[in-house]
Amino acid sequence: MELPFYLNFKDFESHYYDNLEKWFEEYHNTSEIDYLKALSALYSPYLYYNFAEDKVQADAFIEVKDCFFPYHERIGISFCNHCEKDATSKKD
């Protein structure tokens, strides 16, 4: 079974038990712990645990911008691994 990769917690949470049920249908001799380990392996390249703030955080952020390219679709993607730091410093 290919585990779905959710970009927000709300979708992850709302589909958790459906995906867990599919996991049990495909892997008969497993437990929920095995499912959680598979999820951990899936998300670990993109998340890390911040011990100072006691929470899980994204390792990098993707910011989608509305850009204009003549003769092409209007889309642009920039990778931003300091966006959260900038947002935090603006709050202070």
Strand order of the largest sheet: 1-2
Mean pLDDT: 78
Q: Sketch the topology as an H/E string, one letter per element.
A: HHEEEEH
Query: Structural class, please?
Result: alpha+beta
Query: What's the main sheet like?
Result: 2 strands, antiparallel
Shape, principal axes of CA atoms: extended
Amount of beta strand: 15-25%
Distance between the termini: 45 Å
Features:
alpha+beta, 4 strands, 92 residues
How would you describe this structure to a colleague?
With 92 residues, the protein is of the alpha+beta class. It is 42% helix and 20% strand. The chain has 3 helices and 4 strands, in the order ααββββα. The chain has helices at 9-26, 32-43, 83-91; strands at 47-50, 55-58, 61-65, 76-80. The strands form 2 sheets. A two-stranded antiparallel ribbon has the order 1-2.
Detail the topology: elements first, then pairings:
Elements: H1 9-26, H2 32-43, E1 47-50, E2 55-58, E3 61-65, E4 76-80, H3 83-91
Antiparallel strand pairs: 1-2, 3-4
Please give a quick description of this structure.
Helix content is 42%, strand content 20%.
